[in-house]
Design goal:
This is Bifunctional inhibitor/plant lipid transfer protein/seed storage helical domain superfamily. It comes from Arabidopsis thaliana x Arabidopsis arenosa. By secondary structure, the chain is mainly α. It is built from five helices and no strands.
Length: 93
């Protein structure tokens, strides 16, 4: 009789120990996007920066990647630099 509750508890512990793939890859996807924009900007590819990065930053509504960047000091300065370059407002997170 005790075997089934113990197996159930073990199953719950196993399922909790693995993070959700979306949350685990959230900052990775955003980080890659920021890096791509920064590389284009450093290579002075202004048209590409405007079309791929600035248009996204100027869209109204929440900016989930930018809110993530502000939580990580290593990424915050690069994100602010890109926002200033694009003359985009700083999102409210």
């Amino acid at each position: 009789m005790k075997t089934i509750p113990l197996m159930f508890i073990a199953l719950i512990i196993l399922s909790i120990s693995f993070p959700a793939p979306i949350k685990a890859q959230g900052i990775v996807g955003c980080d890659a996007e920021l890096d791509k924009c920064e590389v284009m900007r450093n290579n002075q590819q202004w048209g590409l920066v405007y079309n791929t990065c600035c248009k996204k930053l100027k869209k109204p509504g929440p900016q989930p990647c930018m809110c993530l960047f502000f939580k990580y000091p290593a990424l915050k300065e690069t994100a602010l630099s890109l926002l200033r370059f694009c003359q985009a407002p700083i999102p409210k997170c």
